[in-house]
Amino acid sequence: MSCWHRYSIRCRLAVVAGLVTGLLCTTMAVFIVVMSRQAAVDFRTDQLFSGAVSLGAQLRHRVPDLTEIGPGQAIQVFDPAGTMVAATRDLAGKPPMTNLRPDPDAYATTTSCDTRVFPDRCMIVLAYPFHREGGVWQLNTAVPDVPWYVGPELIIPLATGCVLLVAAAAAGSYRIVGKTLQPVDAIGGNLAQITASGDLRHRVPVPKYRDELRGLAETANQALERAQMAVDQQLRFASDASHDLRSPLTAMRIRIEEALIDPRQADWQRTADALLDSVERMQALIGDLLQEARLDAGVTGRHEPIDLTELVAGELERRLAKTDLRHRLTPGVMVDGSRIELSRLLNNLLDNAERHADSAVTVTLTLDGEVVTLEVSDDGEGIAPEHREVIFQRFTRLEASRARDPGGTGLGLPIARQIAQSHGGTLTAQDSPRGARFVLRLPERGTSRPPSG
């Protein structure tokens, strides 16, 4: 598999590093070439001027024979009338190399390319006037222009250095990114192994340096931890649910089989009553399981302004209480929530309180600042401090609860707590002089501050 496909990020970053380095190197090389060429042009121009001054000093006394000057030098001498009086061998009989006519006390330079005098070439041309008897003469001299690349002694080292620098930047970036991504490769490999095996007990390795990759590994491990907890919770939920569903089903099967052994002697009314009890128990259990599933999925009812005092008073009035039901309700207590879910929460607490009360259940509703407090207490045996959190676990039923209500599901209190949490509140079991006391705290309507437990 090619580098590009196997380590695409590594290769892309190496290419980007190479391109950026190449761009910077090219910019610097262009700057160096431009500055070097300008310096070379200035140097050649200065040489032209020095040679023109020296030759002009000779021309003031006599006009030498320029045809004997070696190749590579281009010189033309014109008298005041513009007639060529002397020139190097290559320029004899040719037109002037430039049309420049500088002031008598100054000189001028220009660059000429592909002219009649210098075809297919670029030349630096200098026009130098000098004084002689009879007027102002002009000396034109030229040398080849400096190439854009100045010369091989400059461009070759620059190009070689740029290539080496780009290669070093790309290779260094590839290696550094590779070292940096090694923990990512390890994390990816472990996650692939976990995905293939389905074993959520494995964890990804955590890098030793405290950087972003360490945070990624820790976050991945936290996600795996939560996933394992969720799977374990679902397994326990399925196991407990199947166990609780099996009990009424078994009872129903036994009743039906007993009746079918001798249909004529069977007490069908009694059998029907027993089957109806089992069906009602299954119906309650299935309803609780569905409510748990909805709460686990975050599906809640539509929240709206609710007069909690009116809701609690209505539920207490409609309830067929098995014990003395007392209440102290502060009027006008408002909350934001789902009426159906809050009613379910209250009835779950009342069912639990009536199940364990000896003679009375007390409901209290108060408003303290921005916190709404609903208390449901009974005068029963109470709950031991070590069991006050256990009872909120699903399908947990203490011995006293099993004795008082063998058909209970063990889901009433967990559902009540989940409803409280979905409304931004808390539900806890707290100290009481006698019996059990459950305290629900909710934020008052219009506030979002979660109440302290």
TrEMBL record:
Spans through the membrane: 12-35
Subcellular location as annotated: Cell membrane
All residue ranges annotated as the Histidine kinase domain in the record: 240-446
EC number: 2.7.13.3
Keyword Cell membrane annotated: no
Catalyzed chemical reaction(s): ATP + protein L-histidine = ADP + protein N-phospho-L-histidine
All copies of domain HAMP, residue ranges: 178-232
GO molecular-function term, one example from the UniProt record: kinase activity
Keywords of this entry: Kinase, Membrane, Phosphoprotein, Transferase, Transmembrane, Transmembrane helix, Two-component regulatory system
One Pfam family recorded for the sequence: HATPase_c
Protein name: histidine kinase
Source organism per UniProt: Nonomuraea angiospora
